[in-house]
Amino acid sequence: MHKKDIMNSETMMYMPVYDSFGNLCTQVYEKNNEYISTLPPTKLLDFNLRYFGSSLRGAFDGSKMILGKLNKNPIVVHERCNILWFPSRSPLHPDCIWFAVHHIDDYVAVDKKRTKVTFMNGKEFIVDVSVNALESRIQRAFLLKYRLEKRTKYLLVQYDRVKVFQRLAKNMFEDETEDS
């Protein structure tokens, strides 16, 4: 693993490519950069999830818990930074492309089985996925984001209540010691 393999908020897409020896690698597209990682896309994604304290299995399990059992579920890579990714097809398939949903600006059908994806930085790619399938995966990614935000908002409200109670208790204790 190299430091360059660690994704950031500017990482847009992982596309499978083969090196001259026939090894599956990843063409990594970032907002202003691109390079090839020696890891296959799914392993590169798992490496990054582990780097941030999770795993691909854990991300899929969490997504399944929130969205239900679906095929090709989106995953949360980094919740605080709102980084969600989704696969173009089954992650077990060597031709699976991974997309960071927050970088997609637009998409249009090229034909029945291919879609042109335009990213926020203007880069365009034609992918072997129907526009309806891609749209469905994007919608599920936003549904995952919405449901997760709804759940964590409740937790934050609960956490804020605890902090307020602790402050009140501390102030009451300080008031009592000053009166003594």
Task: Estimate what percentage of residues fall within beta strands.
Answer: 25-35%
Strand order of the largest sheet: 3-2-1-6-5-4
Structural class determined from secondary elements: alpha+beta
Fraction of helical residues: 40-55%
What's the pLDDT, averaged over the residues? Answer: 87
Instruction: Describe the largest sheet.
Output: 6 strands, antiparallel
What's the number of extended β-strand segments?
9
Order of helices and strands: EEEHHEEEEEEH
Shape by Cα distribution = globular
Put simply, the count of helices is 3
If you compute it from the alpha carbons, what radius of gyration comes out, rounded to the nearest whole angstrom? 21 Å
Q: How far apart, in Å, are the first and last alpha carbons?
A: 62 Å
Instruction: List segments where confidence is low: pLDDT < 50 over at least 5 consecutive residues.
Output: none
